[in-house]
């Protein structure tokens, strides 16, 4: 039997996906430059991200400020953190909490990019989430070589989809063997959440090259109380600052 021709709808959808992918890639390149070493030094993000306020718990010693002259914001170097993970794992919530906003009620999927820029004493940190729905996961690998750290968010209670998370994580690990990775075991507040030992095993982290900088942190990003007191988020942020320094 002769192979069936692709229908016009399939072709149109394929074309639209290709165009979307190219546009996203060009926008990213424009924003972050062409490699880990190249830093973007303009004042404002192309997606018009709101300027993030400095987290209160950032270890900024006011006495240091008096001694040294504070560098102008536009002179600060940029660091880039990519935030990936399956849909619903808590990426947008993490970005919201970091920028001082309360988590949204319910899951509003990210249909593309989402970002925040956080100034610290020595550099600015751009955190960029790419949505985790299946059609967007295809683009993740295009970005891993462009960033300084990868945060991979996992829903610790989503036992059914953990094999998918594992598969996606290992694809990214293979794509850039030198990239530091922070795996966040989110939603530890849920009673059905898997333990850290179980997650380490199920995500295949024991098999990862021992030379590799890879961390597994427990968290419940959606804070029970006011945002910045959330210990999970604080730990992740502190680790990111260490890795980016
Ligand atoms: N119980 C609990 N729920 C959380 C936690 N963090 C996030 N959530 C909830 O999980 C849902 C999905 O969170 P999002 O941050 O939108 O997920 P996402 O990873 O950005 O999803 P996509 O944009 O679709 O890829 C929301 O209802 C959040 O409130 C947590 O620590 N504990
Ligand atoms: Mg999201």
State the order of secondary-structure elements, H for helix, E for strand: HHEHEEHEHEHEH
Our Rg estimate from Cα atoms comes to 19 Å
Could you say what the CATH architecture of one domain is? 3-Layer(aba) Sandwich
Distance between the ends: 61 Å
DSSP strand tally: 6
For the record, what is the CATH homologous superfamily label of one domain? P-loop containing nucleotide triphosphate hydrolases
What is the CATH T-level topology of one domain?
Answer: Rossmann fold
Detail the poorly predicted runs: 1-6, 37-58
Query: What portion of residues is helical?
Result: 25-40%
Strand order of the biggest β-sheet: 2-3-1-4-5-6
SS strand fraction:
15-25%
| Structural class based on helices, strands and sheet pairing | alpha/beta
Q: What are the bound molecules? A: guanosine-5'-triphosphate, magnesium ion
Shape: globular
Q: Just give the CATH class of one domain.
A: Alpha Beta
Contiguous helical run count: 7
Main beta sheet: 6 strands, mixed
* Average residue pLDDT: 79
Protein name: ARF like GTPase 10
GO molecular function, one term: metal ion binding
InterPro entries: ARL10 (IPR042951), P-loop_NTPase (IPR027417), Small_GTPase_ARF/SAR (IPR006689)
Pfam families: Arf
Question: Which features does this protein show?
Answer:
245 residues, alpha/beta, Rossmann fold, six-stranded mixed β-sheet, 6 strands, 33% helix, disordered N terminus, binds magnesium ion
What's the topology here?
Elements: H1 8-32, H2 62-67, E1 77-84, H3 91-98, E2 113-119, E3 123-130, H4 134-140, E4 149-155, H5 162-175, E5 181-186, H6 196-202, E6 214-218, H7 231-244
Parallel strand pairs: 1-3, 1-4, 4-5, 5-6
Antiparallel strand pairs: 2-3
Magnesium ion is lined by residues 91-92, 110, 114, 129, 131.
